[in-house]
Design a protein that fits this description.
The structure holds two protein chains of two kinds. By secondary structure, chain A is an all-alpha fold. Chain A has one domain. Chain A contains eleven helices and no strands. The longest helix of chain A has 37 residues. Chain A starts with a helix and ends with a helix. Chain B folds into two domains: 227 residues, Rossmann fold, CATH 3.40.50; 60 residues. Chain B has a six-stranded mixed β-sheet with strand order 5-6-7-3-8-9, with helices on both faces. In chain B, strands 11-12-10-13 form a four-stranded antiparallel β-sheet, with helices on one face. In chain B, strands 2-1-4 form a three-stranded antiparallel β-sheet, covered by helices on one side. Chain B contains ten helices and 13 strands. In chain B, β1 and β2 form a beta hairpin. At the A-B interface, α1 and α4 of A face α2 and α3 of B. Bound molecules: adenosine-5'-triphosphate (ATP) and magnesium ion. Adenosine-5'-triphosphate binds next to β2 and α1 of chain B.
Chain lengths: 262, 313
């Protein structure tokens, strides 16, 4: 099983890393972070570090999520569209193994480009006299957890929908995940919409449960305030991300298993 | 031969495609049955749109049958161990064109659980077999159509399969390439493998197939050993005539000759020649020639297709 999944991983990794859109996005992201040096010059001295850290985390998250959505929705569809799956699906490999291989292959490509990005970013921070501490590493790690969930979501949609639709759905889930905390704040506030119309409470709660909450993965506020992120928190965030990844990848496998290649 | 020995056993297979929103049904395959025995070279024949590719997709786990039973190597096409022993070349395949020929075959070989050194050796053998060793490092994007077809055959054989299913393996190949593919198929038979392949090139099928099944419009029209289908020794008479008459109104199957307006070609059995000529002359045709021809596979399809048509009407 491992060997067969690995075959798909290798192929996906090569495909993505030789994909022009991916290479362009990765290069732009790295240039972006280098240019943040210039931007930080514009801000006043004690804001400088704050800008560099904030901007770095933001670009890491933006670029990686974008790459995850683009590659996630394009690569499976391309195989169906160009019928290259006709060469793989009849091979002695389970369809679920193909989906698993796609996920792992794309995840490794994204993580690889993210590591390059983070290395450059830390280099930039270092030249500005910022000490690279473990909290910074934790924050980057949390951002990448979010990216993995987004990738699983994109892959799930692409097992049955066109790239455009999958892209829109995947981005919607990202946005819903990012603003979930607003909804939950509203729910728990003593006044407001939900208290006026208690019937809507249930719908709001169901929405909260049905979609991943991505605010879990964003800790730049704590970082800037100098609050340490407990290891326990990182661990439970990992579990949370893993659970959503498994759910979406498993759903993708079920749909792919039933698919016919017309 | 008992059904246990059948490598492919298709019983009453039907496949209906639904157009989006289920507005229209396309009956691609209807009640098709045939059986392929071990060690055979089995030809799958039929004009465009006959349902060959659809049947092959069912055999290779790409689509599910609407009804009927399909067994491959004693199991279902969805069984992993069945596919481990099956090699497949799709019709007009597209490749991972960002890979080199060697990289591609290497990845395909991984699905068969081949490790390290064995895999490399196997890939080299396959490149050699299809004559692509010289282009092993080239990206598939830069391959010509015929070169790609060869790589397609190489990937079908990479797992050393017991059963090889090829959908139009000769398409895109030059005459030398065709001969090479025929030789590869023949050598597979020598090794006791079973080959099931579809083709439009009648001479290719006539030359190497032990048995054939012929489809037309999704239905079986003929099956069996080639010799019995072609009525060895039985001669057909072919009459070529010229005239102003309407081809449609003539008895039997008359076909207009391409590029020769007013000319038509008509086949009948030798004892019908007199009456047929009489009919033609009565309708104002001039007889140009009467020749004897051995029935070819093409004629078989045309005559069977014609019978089907007249039954529909
Ligand atoms: N995905 C599909 N959706 C709808 N109809 C289809 C689909 N695939 C095939 N068909 C129809 O099914 C019939 C059989 O097609 P098939 O591709 O099996 O023919 P074929 O014998 O392989 O022909 P060819 O020799 O041209 O390759 C055709 O009428 C075709 O239009
Ligand atoms: Mg076909």
């Amino acid at each position: 099983m491992i060997r067969r999944i690995w075959a798909v991983v290798v192929n996906t990794f090569i495909e993505a890393s030789r994909n022009k859109a991916f290479v362009a996005m990765a290069i732009i992201a790295v240039l972006f972070i280098v240019s943040s040096l210039a931007i930080s010059q514009l801000s006043i001295e004690d804001q400088r570090i704050r800008v560099l850290i904030d901007f770095g985390l933001f670009s890491l998250s933006l670029a990686s999520n974008l790459i995850a959505v683009v590659l996630g929705v394009i690569l499976i569809h391309k195989e169906v569209d160009r019928k290259t799956f006709y060469l793989v699906v009849p091979k002695p490999v389970r369809r679920s193994e193909i989906v698993a291989g796609k996920f792992i292959g794309l995840a490794s490509v994204i993580l690889m480009s993210a590591l390059i990005f983070i290395a450059v970013w830390f280099g930039v921070l270092h030249t500005r006299g910022v000490t690279i501490n473990i909290e910074l590493v934790k924050a980057s790690y949390l951002v990448l957890l979010e990216v993995m969930v987004v990738l699983a979501v994109a892959l799930f949609f692409s097992t049955f929908a066109t790239p455009i639709i999958s892209g829109i759905f995947a981005l919607s889930i990202l946005v819903i995940g990012r603003i979930q905390y607003i909804l939950s704040d509203l729910l728990s506030s003593p006044k407001g919409f939900f208290q006026h119309y208690p019937a809507t409470k249930l719908i709001a709660k169901a929405t909260l449960a049905a979609f991943p909450d991505f605010s879990v993965f964003h800790v730049s506020r704590q970082l800037l305030l100098g609050i340490n992120i407990p290891a326990q928190y990182v661990l439970s965030a990992t579990g949370y991300a893993l659970a959503w990844c498994v759910l979406f990848v498993a759903l993708g496998m079920i749909l792919f298993e039933r698919r016919q290649f017309l | 031969m008992s059904s246990a020995a059948a490598v492919i056993d298709v019983q009453h297979l039907s496949k209906t495609f639904l157009t989006p929103l289920a507005l229209r049904k396309v009956r691609a395959v209807q009640d098709v049955s045939f059986r392929v025995s071990r060690g055979q070279i089995f030809g799958f024949l039929g004009p465009n749109g006959a349902g060959k590719t659809t049947t092959i997709k069912v055999l290779t786990n790409l689509i599910r049958p609407s009804s009927g039973k399909v067994s491959v190597l004693g199991g279902s096409p969805s069984d992993l161990h069945v596919r481990l022993k099956t090699g497949f070349l799709p019709e007009m395949p597209n490749f991972y064109d960002y890979l080199s020929a060697r990289e591609f075959l290497d990845i395909m070989a991984r699905f068969y659980g081949l490790g390290g050194r064995t895999r490399r050796k196997r890939v080299d053998e396959m490149l050699e077999l299809v004559g692509m060793t010289y282009a092993a490092k080239r990206k598939l994007r830069k391959f010509s159509k015929g070169m790609l077809q060869r790589i397609g055959i190489a990937q079908a054989l990479i797992g050393d399969p017991e059963l090889v299913i090829l959908d139009e393996p000769m398409s895109g190949l030059d005459p030398i390439g065709r001969k090479e593919v025929r030789d590869i198929i023949a050598s597979l038979k020598q090794k006791g493998r079973t080959v099931f392949f579809s083709s439009h090139i009648l001479s290719d099928i006539e030359m190497i197939c032990d048995e054939v099944v012929v489809l037309n419009r999704g239905r079986n029209v003929a099956a069996g050993p080639l010799d019995s289908l072609l009525h060895p020794g039985r001669v057909m008479s072919e009459i070529v005539a010229q005239g102003p008459g309407d081809v449609e109104a003539l008895p039997g199957k008359a076909v207009s000759m391409e590029g020769k307006p007013g000319f038509l070609r008509l086949q009948c059995s030798p004892d019908e020649v007199d009456s047929t000529i009489q009919t033609l002359m009565q309708r104002g045709f001039h007889i140009k020639s009467v020749t004897e021809a051995r029935m070819s596979l093409e004629d078989l399809i045309v005559s069977k297709a014609f019978q089907e048509d007249s039954r529909d009407d």
